[in-house]
Amino acid sequence: MTTQPVSPPTPRTRLSLSLASLVLLGLLALAVGIYLRPVPGLALALGALVLVVAWVRPFLLFASLLAMIPLYDGLLRVVTWQLRWPDSWIRILSLWKEGVVLLLFAVLLVQHLTGRRRLRWRLYQFDIWLLALLVLSLAYVPIATRLGIGVYGLRNYMLPLAVFVLARLIPYSRRDLVWLLVLLTAVAAGVAAFGIYQVRFIDFPTMVEMGYVDASGRLPFAFKTALRDGFPIPRAISTATGPNQLALYLNLFILLCLFGFVRWHQPARRLVLGGLAALFAICLLLTFSRGGLLALMVSIAAWVAIVVVERGVRRTLTELAHNRLLVAGLVAALVLGATGLVASGFATRVLRGLTGRDPAADAHVSSMQYSFDFLAEHPMGIGLGMVGERALRFSGEAPIQHTESTYLQYGMETGLFGLLLMGAALVALLATLWRIRGRQRAVADGWGQAMAELAIVFWIGAMADFVVTPLLQNLLAAGALWWIAGVAFHLDAYED
């Protein structure tokens, strides 16, 4: 007889009379402060609310963090270019992510030490590889031209990784996780819908006015492409940093909807999931991100391979033959996908890239060749934070390098050894996720198995995208990758 795992109970919060009085007095003081000085008072009130939520329900604050990450760059464009906030306010706003992460870690540590909320951390072989990678990264921080550059580079790698650690540590039930998946899918649907709207109805001058600009105040070349007769066409960016980052983020929710479509048999749910998958796929096509499309194709191929290897070709075909609704959905997805590729102009972009008639593709090839040559000339690396798009802010004070690959970025920063260590760590991550999937399958836990499989295929697709796109420092893309992996680790640690 199989016993279903039980999640740890959430501690109840009791509010004493003295504490209630203190809270009321604090609220009164905040009201007076807001009346006398609105902006500082509101900021203090928001900080107090965040602190209370972090202490009572850390999971709610973590869920809010995950829901806000896809919207952050869009919000930053609004306050910078439309509301014209002072630079000091914008700098404070830009640190909200780090503040929430540090607050969550502090609260979890205090609650664990005081016994209020016991945390569980299961050690895996991957953790050893990850620790080695972190130690190497720390060693290369002072190698950068200036210490601040190295620290900034480390921060860009660590912030998405913090999402992974928090997803493993924070106690939450499966009901909480379902609620979180619904919330994040709803946010992603809004992001995708706005991305489609932005491509179809917002022209380039309006995009500039809305803040879709680089440090020089110009629309980046990566935000547009030339497909028909040499005229630029906007790429879907929505509230993300750029089209490639948005594409990988959307991949997670396309896969999530496909997983649900296959595993759920209720027609109404399948209709909703199919519609959402179509919405995400349309926005993905409008990003014109070849790396994002490559990641999705590799992810789906990996998922099909897992199913076929596990069940066998004959059984897989037999089950498909008896599930007409699923077959109809798959055929519709193929037809609509092919139509979308042609209608959006994505197929033309890919064809021009393959035939050498796309300047962007030629630039990618030249950049890759330069990166290989640079790595050969600097096999020991040039320091963390010295390579990549985010490092361009230091281009006036250091010889910043550019590359089109996640692997080559880390290799150029930490040398050939760092590149090999990164590859070994990623292989160890996939191996650990595969073992977690096996344990969930052994106890007939379909939910846990599905989450582990989702993490596996999403990461495999992303690793293919890493070859042609530097993404591991982007909070939206890398945060989605680390979060789904952390969920699989959490289910294995808390519910074994």
Structural notes for this entry:
It is built from 19 helices and 2 strands. It is mainly α and 496 residues long. A two-stranded antiparallel sheet has the order 1-2. Strand 1 and strand 2 form a beta hairpin. Helix 12 (290-311) crosses helix 13 (313-321). The protein is globular, with a radius of gyration of 24 Å. The chain starts with 16 loop residues before the first helix and ends with a helix.
Instruction: Tell me about the largest β-sheet.
Output: 2 strands, antiparallel
The helix/strand series, from N terminus to C terminus, equals: HHHHHHHHHEEHHHHHHHHHH
Percent range of helical residues: over 70%
Counting helices, strands and paired strands, the structural category is mainly alpha
Instruction: Provide the spatial order of strands within the biggest beta sheet.
Output: 1-2
Q: How far is the N terminus from the C terminus?
A: 15 Å
Helical region count? 19
What is this structure's SSE topology?
Layout: H1 17-36, H2 38-56, H3 58-82, H4 87-94, H5 96-114, H6 125-139, H7 147-169, H8 174-201, H9 204-210, E1 224-228, E2 231-234, H10 243-263, H11 267-286, H12 290-311, H13 313-321, H14 324-344, H15 346-354, H16 359-377, H17 406-442, H18 446-466, H19 475-494
Antiparallel strand pairs: 1-2
Helix pairs in contact: 1-2, 2-3, 2-5, 3-5, 3-8, 5-7, 6-17, 7-19, 8-11, 10-11, 10-12, 10-18, 10-19, 11-14, 12-13, 12-18, 16-17, 17-18, 17-19, 18-19
